[in-house]
Write a structure and sequence with these properties.
It contains six helices and eight strands; from the N terminus they run E-E-E-H-E-H-E-H-E-H-E-H-E-H. It has about 220 residues and is an alpha/beta fold. The chain is globular and about 45 Å long. It holds the Pfam family Abhydrolase_11.
Length: about 220
C-alpha cells in the first residue's frame, strides 16, 4: 500500500507491506545514503516480515544531512503511531547504513523528551551501521548508541569497511541497552559476500531480524 506522509510543505513517499492477519507490532525501515526505499535489501526484508505476520513501513528520504534524515524518520514514527488503520502497540525502527544512524538518533531524542515514556518504540535494528568513515577509524559515530536503552540488533559484515569488527564490539560492550551483533562472514558494507548469492545472504539477514523481533516482543509480554 503506497502512502504519502506529510512532512513540512513536502511529503515522504512510503510503502506499507501488510500481513494477512492484523499485526500488533510493526517495523519502520529506511535506506542508506544512496538509493531509496526500493533498495533490494529493504524490499526483501519488508516482504519477509509481512509474510511472517509483521507490518513493515518503508520510506524514502534522500537528504544526506543526518539531522534532516532523523527529522523525517520521526515524522514517519508519529504518522504510524496515530494511524487509525494500523493500530499498533509498538514499532521497531530499522535502517540500512545511514538510515540506521538516523533511527538511532530518533530513539535517543525521543527518550530525552520526557513526555515520551509510552514505550511505543520497542527496539532498533541496524543493518550495516556506519560506525566510521572508510579508513577513518579514529572518529566513531557512537554517541547516539551509548544513550539508547531499548534493545538493539546489529547485523554487520565482518569485512565492512565502515564498521571494523573490533571497534563495533568495543562500542557495544559500553552500551547500556540489551544488544546483539550478528556478523555476516566476509560481507562488505553492501552485504556482498564472494561465493554467495544476494538471496542467500538476505535469507540469513531476514531470518535473524525476524527471530530477534520475536524474542523482544515476547520479552515485553512476560
Amino acid at each position: 500500500v503506497k502512502v504519502k506522509i506529510p512532512f513540512g510543505n513536502k511529503h515522504i513517499d512510503a510503502i506499507f507491506s501488510v500481513p494477512e492477519k492484523k499485526s500488533t507490532y510493526g517495523v519502520i525501515l529506511t535506506h542508506g545514503a544512496g538509493g531509496d526505499m526500493n533498495f533490494p535489501h529493504l524490499v526483501s526484508l519488508a516482504s519477509y516480515l509481512a509474510s511472517h505476520g509483521v507490518l513493515c513501513l518503508r520510506f524514502t528520504c534522500k537528504g544526506l544531512n543526518i539531522a534532516y534524515r532523523a527529522k523525517a524518520f520521526k515524522t514517519v514514527v508519529e504518522y504510524l503511531k496515530l494511524s487509525d488503520e494500523y493500530k499498533l502497540s509498538g514499532v521497531f525502527l530499522a535502517g540500512r547504513s545511514m538510515g540506521s544512524r538516523a533511527a538511532a538518533s530518533v530513539i535517543r531524542h525521543l527518550s530525552q523528551e520526557e513526555e515520551d515514556d509510552d514505550d511505543f518504540i520497542q527496539g532498533l535494528v541496524c543493518l550495516s551501521y556506519p560506525l566510521h568513515r572508510p579508513k577513518l577509524q579514529s572518529k566513531l559515530r557512537d554517541e547516539d548508541l551509548l544513550f539508547i536503552r531499548c534493545p538493539v540488533l546489529f547485523i554487520s559484515g565482518s569485512a565492512d569497511e565502515m564498521c571494523e569488527k573490533q571497534l563495533l564490539e568495543g562500542v557495544v560492550s559500553k552500551m547500556k541497552a540489551p544488544k546483539k551483533i550478528h556478523w555476516i562472514d566476509n560481507a562488505n558494507h553492501g552485504m556482498a559476500v564472494k561465493g554467495r548469492t544476494t538471496d542467500d545472504v538476505m535469507e540469513e539477514i531476514n531470518t535473524q531480524v525476524f527471530s530477534w523481533l520475536g524474542k523482544n516482543v515476547e520479552l515485553e509480554h512476560k
